[in-house]
Structures are given as C-alpha cells and as structure tokens.
C-alpha cells in the first residue's frame, strides 16, 4: 500500500465516520422509532380484527413488502413532484424507511402478540380488566420479549439499508465515500473502508441486542420465580 493511498484513507476515515454519526445513525434510529409506532398500530388493528381498517392495513403491508425499497425511495422523492408534492431528501428518506420497515415489523409484532396464550386474555377479563388494560399489562410485555430479537435484527438491517438514501442525495456516509472516491479514484480502498465502518456500527448494535436479550431473559426468569 503506497503512501498516497494511506494518506487518503487516514483523511477519509473521520469524514465518513462523522457522516455516519451525524446522518446514518440518526436516520436509522428516527426511522425505526416511527416504524415501531406504525407496526404497533397495524398489529393491534389486525389482532383486534377491526373490520373497516384491517383491509387497508393488509393492503399497505402487501404493497410495501412486495416492492423494492429503492423503488419506494424513487417513487416518493422523484415521483411526488409530478403531483406538486416536493419533499426534502432527508425527511423523505425517514418517511420511506419508516413505512417500509413498519410493514415488516407489523408482521413481527402481530405474530408475537398472537403467540401469547389465549387463556391469559380470558384471565384478564375474569378479573375485570378492559381489552386495552389486558393488552398493555399482560399481552404486550410478553409479546415484546418474543419480538425483541427479530426487531433488533430489523434495526441492524436498517443501518445498512440507509446507504440507499445516497440515491436521493442524502449526504450519509456512503455518499460521502462516493464523493471522495470520485475525487481520488481510489474506489476499492474507500468502499472497503466504508464497509468497515458499517461493520463497526452493526457490531455495536449487535452487542446492544445481546445485552437487551440477557436483560429480558433475566426479567422473565425473575417474573417466573415470583409467579
């Protein structure tokens, strides 16, 4: 490795890493937080079998899961201006990532809620709880423990998916790497360096996931002992 390439990598690493801290990670966390809200609403509608809303939820999930994320980004960012709706790149990316991930997380939450034994709902009704009280105090805490690993995997996957935002001019770390590579012509080294930074971020989230799972298992064990 020649001295020029080493200097390029040393200069580019903090620039790319900084864009990851300032754009990629906030974009991921905000989008995922909104996705969880969407997922909870959609899951609750399906579990409660709200007849006049459930078809719309199923249609939304079908459309989102059946079309590529990149196409959805292009459709919203480049397509809506034809209808007179112009969205800035970053809010557009947040909206699309949230809607996309919300559809997948909705199915995860629905399956987790439905995995809670029906007898626990009946027991809640027997002690005078309302449906929402049963969901909040009995069903959702158990469902969340079941859903935590797949939801965490979705979050880690979203960290990598944010690189697609570069296609709609969001200055996240992959676009920063593209600009540096376009100026220096060291594409292989710079993209490998960017991949390393993604790996660092995903490794941190993986460690947090394992810590969260251990904490939930501890709480679950404690609840079983008290029961």
Name the CATH architecture. Orthogonal Bundle
Number of domains: 1
Cα distance spanning the termini: 62 Å
Let me know the largest β-sheet. none
Helical run tally:
8
Overall pLDDT score = 90
> What percentage of amino acids are in beta strands?
under 5%
Question: What is the β-strand count?
Answer: 0
The whole-angstrom Rg is: 21 Å
Low-confidence stretches: 222-227
By helix and strand content, what is the structural category? mainly alpha
Order of helices and strands: HHHHHHHH
- Categorize the overall geometry: flat
CATH class membership: Mainly Alpha
Helix fraction bin: over 70%
Quick recap:
The chain has 227 residues and is mainly α. The chain has helices at 3-48, 54-65, 69-79, 89-114, 118-126, 131-161, 173-184, 187-226.
Topology:
Blueprint: H1 3-48, H2 54-65, H3 69-79, H4 89-114, H5 118-126, H6 131-161, H7 173-184, H8 187-226
Helix pairs in contact: 1-4, 1-7, 1-8, 2-4, 3-4, 4-6, 5-6, 6-8, 7-8
Give a quick set of tags describing it.
227 residues, mainly alpha, MetI-like fold, disordered C terminus
Structure characterization notes:
82% of the residues lie in helices and 0% in strands. With 227 residues, the chain is an all-alpha fold. The chain has a single domain, classed as MetI-like fold (Orthogonal Bundle). α2 crosses α4 (89-114). The longest helix has 46 residues, at 3-48. It is flat. The termini are far apart. Residues 222-227 have low confidence and may be disordered.
């Amino acid at each position: 490795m020649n001295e020029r390439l080493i200097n390029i990598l040393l200069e580019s690493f903090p620039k790319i890493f900084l864009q990851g801290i300032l754009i990629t990670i906030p974009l991921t966390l905000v989008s995922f937080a909104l996705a969880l809200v969407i997922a909870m609403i959609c899951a609750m509608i399906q579990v409660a079998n709200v007849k006049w809303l459930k078809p719309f939820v199923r249609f939304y999930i079908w459309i989102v899961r059946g079309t590529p994320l990149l196409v959805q980004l292009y459709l919203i960012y480049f397509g809506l201006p034809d209808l007179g709706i112009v969205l800035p790149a970053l809010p557009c990316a947040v909206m699309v990532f949230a809607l996309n991930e919300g559809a997948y997380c909705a199915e995860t939450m629905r399956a987790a809620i439905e995995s809670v034994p029906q007898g626990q709902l009946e027991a809640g009704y027997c002690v005078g709880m309302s449906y929402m009280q049963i969901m909040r105090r009995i069903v959702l805490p158990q469902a969340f423990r079941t859903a935590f690993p797949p939801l965490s995997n979705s979050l880690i996957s979203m960290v990598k998916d944010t690189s697609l935002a570069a296609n709609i001019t969001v200055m996240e770390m992959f676009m920063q790497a593209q600009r540096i590579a376009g100026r220096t012509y060291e594409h292989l080294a710079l993209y490998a360096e960017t991949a390393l930074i993604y790996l660092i971020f995903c490794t941190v989230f993986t460690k947090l996931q394992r810590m969260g799972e251990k904490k939930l298992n501890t709480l679950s064990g404690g609840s079983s002992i008290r029961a």
